[in-house]
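Re: the pair you flagged

First of the two:
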Amino acid sequence: MKSHRLVTPTTLLRWHRRLIARHWTYPNRSGRPPIDAVIASPVKQMARDNPGRGYQRIQGELQRLGHRIGASTIRRIPERLGLPPAPVRRGHRLSMEDPTADCIRGQLHVETSGSGPTQK
């Protein structure tokens, strides 16, 4: 009976163990994939050339060039280079707590003496 076997039971079990091991072995992926150098290099250049440019402005420039990338990803690239973040802009509105706001409001105030259109 042994002379008619094409494969021994040991070989068959070895093949089965390899098949199961190959099926249940996961690739070594840890974390997010790295940022592509094609995208990272213009971000580095823009962050170095214009330190006051924010992440969203850099994101807009990259979109104009045809690259889709999130602002948080753009934020991580200069952080890895040790570049400081862009300064926080307060916006165009004047704050009530701002001491210079009263001076500016006083300069912007225009006196009207009732010479405008009248309402009935």
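Second of the two:
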Amino acid sequence: MRAILDTASGRSRTLIAVLLFSGLRISEALGLVWGDVDIRTGHLRVRHQLARNGNRIRVKTTGSHRDVVIMDTLARNLRRHQLASKHSKPGDFVFATATGSALSSRNAGRAIDRIAAEAGLASEHGGILAVRFRALVLLPWVR
């Protein structure tokens, strides 16, 4: 985990930290808006996800609706990310492009794959998004 976090920077580092330490799927992380992030209480409200076509849609099942507790370090990282962003209103995407639209899963995947390769993490599945991010990164620590 340390290798990939040390290799990443900026928005990518924050996205990777959210994926690693919250357990969110990448579609759920990319679908977060600032109104879903409660830094004061340390919670992420998961109600939506980003569809492949770039639309923000409700998560597929009511069981997927959840509030995820995040550690203080991740909350502080998200707060710094929000302060640095031009798009930080409650309805703005947490992981936004320069124009304020949602970062696409394709572009996020490319960035994560590049960072993972630079960190020396290779995926035999053809890309880090082929399996759940945390499983790929954490699997070596379990063995």
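The helical segments are 2-7, 10-22, 26-30, 72-84, 105-118, 133-142.

-B.
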